[in-house]
């Protein structure tokens, strides 16, 4: 990836993360209060995360395989755009690190999760990675975070989408969030769709999560 394109996409990612969107229940929202949503809310409560389903989105079944473990997903109908969520508690991250024989602090598990997930999504190493600035982390009551922009391998599991922006954030002693935005377009429309859900989830301030 050339330097000009790298800088341009980096700027767009930061703009996408800083844009404020109104995420409220409204006409056009399609939320299924079934088992998937209830299980997701239970996980969110354990970690101490608030979630408001964004307007215009529709809940879809989350992918949950050996290498792609997500606990919630939604799409923008007619836009070729989906967001998959993976929320881990501190306990989940400790277990993950133990299973992979990694001797690191559980608060650092977010970095392992996003890198491992990017490796599953693509066969190339053309990853555009960025640390999320502290000013943006504060907006989500998070301590650390990273983004990865990857070209997806053609796969029915990812519904033959071409691109994915992976965003992860973690709050110390609470847990981590991984959001994967999938699209066939990485231009302005992609980031416009991201704006629609940019404020739907964040860590609760001063929340003591289950360990």
Give an overview in words.
The chain is an alpha+beta fold and 211 residues long. 31% of the residues lie in helices and 25% in strands. The chain contains six helices and nine strands; from the N terminus they run ααββββααβαβββαβ. The strands form two sheets. The protein has a seven-stranded antiparallel β-sheet, sandwiched between helices. Strands 1-9 form a two-stranded antiparallel ribbon. A hairpin with a 4-residue loop joins strand 3 (72-76) and strand 4. Helix 1 (3-18) packs parallel to helix 6 (188-195). The protein is globular and about 40 Å long. The N and C termini lie far apart (41 Å). The model is unreliable at 1-12 and 18-28 (pLDDT under 50). Residues 1-26 form the signal peptide. Keywords: Signal.
Layout of helices and strands:
Elements: H1 3-18, H2 35-47, E1 49-51, E2 58-60, E3 72-76, E4 81-89, H3 90-99, H4 109-121, E5 128-131, H5 134-139, E6 144-151, E7 163-171, E8 175-183, H6 188-195, E9 201-203
Helix pairs in contact: 1-6
The tally of helices reads: 6
Strand/helix succession: HHEEEEHHEHEEEHE
What would you call the shape? globular
Q: Uncertain regions: pLDDT < 50 for 5+ in a row?
A: 1-12, 18-28
Order of adjacent strands in the largest pleated sheet: 2-3-4-8-7-6-5
Keywords: Signal
Signal peptide: 1-26
Quick tags:
single chain, 211 residues, alpha+beta, seven-stranded antiparallel sheet, 31% helix, disordered N terminus, signal
What would you say about this model in short?
31% of the residues lie in helices and 25% in strands. The chain is α+β, with helices and mostly antiparallel strands and 211 residues long. The chain has one domain (3-203).
């Amino acid at each position: 990836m050339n330097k000009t394109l790298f800088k341009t996409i980096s700027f767009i990612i930061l703009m996408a993360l800083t844009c404020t969107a109104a995420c409220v229940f409204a006409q056009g929202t399609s939320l299924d209060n079934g088992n998937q949503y209830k299980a997701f809310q239970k996980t969110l409560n354990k970690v101490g995360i608030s979630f408001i389903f964004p307007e215009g989105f529709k809940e879809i079944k989350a992918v949950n395989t050996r290498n792609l473990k997500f606990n919630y997903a939604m799409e923008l109908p007619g836009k070729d755009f989906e967001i998959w969520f993976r929320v881990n508690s501190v306990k989940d991250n400790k277990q993950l690190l133990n299973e992979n024989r990694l001797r690191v602090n559980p608060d650092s598990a977010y970095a392992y999760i996003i890198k491992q997930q990017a490796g599953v999504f693509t066969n190339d190493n053309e990853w555009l990675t960025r640390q999320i600035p502290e000013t943006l982390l504060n907006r989500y009551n998070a301590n650390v975070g990273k983004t990865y922009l990857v070209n997806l391998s053609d796969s029915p599991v990812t519904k033959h989408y071409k691109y994915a922006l992976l965003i992860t954030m973690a709050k110390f002693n609470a847990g981590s969030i991984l959001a994967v935005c999938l699209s066939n377009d990485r231009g302005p429309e992609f980031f416009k769709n991201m704006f629609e859900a940019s404020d739907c989830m964040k860590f609760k301030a001063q929340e003591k999560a289950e360990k």
